[in-house]
Amino acid sequence: MTIPARPLGAAAAAKPFAPLVRKPGVVRVLVVDDSALVRRILSDALSQHEDIEVVGTATDPYVARERIVQLRPDVITLDIEMPRMDGLSFLSKLMKHFPIPVVVVSSLTPQNSETALRALALGAVEVIAKPGSSLAAADIVDELARAVRSAAHARVVKRVDTPDVAPIAPRPAIATIDSTHKIIALGASTGGTQALEQVLRRFPVDAPGTVIVQHMPEHFTLSFAKRLDSVCAMRVQEAVDGDYVVPGLALVAPGGKHLVLQANGARWVARVKDGPKVHHQRPAVDVLFQSVARCAGRNAVGALLTGMGADGAKGMLAMREAGAYTIAQDEATCVVYGMPREAVKLEAAVDVLPLDRIADALLGSLRRSAVHA
Fold this sequence. Notes:
Layout: H1 10-14, E1 27-32, H2 36-47, E2 52-58, H3 61-71, E3 75-78, H4 87-97, E4 102-106, H5 110-122, E5 126-129, H6 137-152, E6 183-188, H7 192-200, E7 209-214, H8 220-231, E8 235-238, E9 244-245, E10 249-252, E11 258-264, E12 267-273, H9 285-295, E13 300-304, H10 313-321, E14 325-329, H11 339-345, E15 351-353, H12 355-372
Parallel strand pairs: 1-2, 1-3, 3-4, 4-5, 6-7, 6-13, 7-10, 8-10, 13-14, 14-15
Antiparallel strand pairs: 9-12, 11-12
Helix pairs in contact: 2-6, 4-5, 5-8, 7-12, 9-10, 10-11
């Protein structure tokens, strides 16, 4: 899809465009959804914030294409189930020809969560839950605004087609792998689904037990874990309260719950808990990292990846002070250089590294510590 120099359609062509007037510091948003009710809810929710302006709406990708040319929004909110052209097809074309930050707004169903993950792989920077019978408009006001602000800061580049991932070789059952005291802790937000995949795909089948927080809505994390499990040598699954954290297994915090590491004799146990949001997040990276600092100390390593805000910075500082080796992703490879930047400011990171060097650095640190133990 090539974005034309002027919008298509007789109605749009008949009416000349008014010059764009941009307000400093205000994020301009285009809402794309085939439901008039959802368009109104999202527009009303975003309009409550002085730093966000809804400049238009669109009922489908064809109308959205015209609105993009006319309005030049900073961010698009995109439904993925629409008539005439589905959201994924539109997103794919958009990212190849006219990349722009996109927030996917999706219903909380297993099928939609898998589709939303494909949208993230295609270049969307955020995914949030669509308002519905179980989610009132008031519940999404802050989350939607946060996602839009985060997207506005995102580094979006043209996407290129990538080859299919090679199938994973058969892996040993988790129960047959020996226990170890080493722990890897990872935290991410905006842009983190792809960043975490890149890190985890470099881990071997017997990598130390790994605990992960990725800011993501409830129900979506199960599909995310399954996606990672299909492309990584080690096993990946959504954490269940009481799971042992063992080599060869990575546990992803479920959306809407905090993930905490606890010691149980000579083994590590994952605890999945309710609790207040931290940095407006549940799960929160800080909650996980603080627990890793308390329980694992110098037996842990951790990395804070791309994301908006400050979640994870103080937790990473606690890990470093407890003797853990810590890494912040560098600005050049972050989609949003927010959380890692806050960690750097606090001097919580031992090293600041590009994404493609983080996995090897984490594993190398663990190997060195094992030699000197």
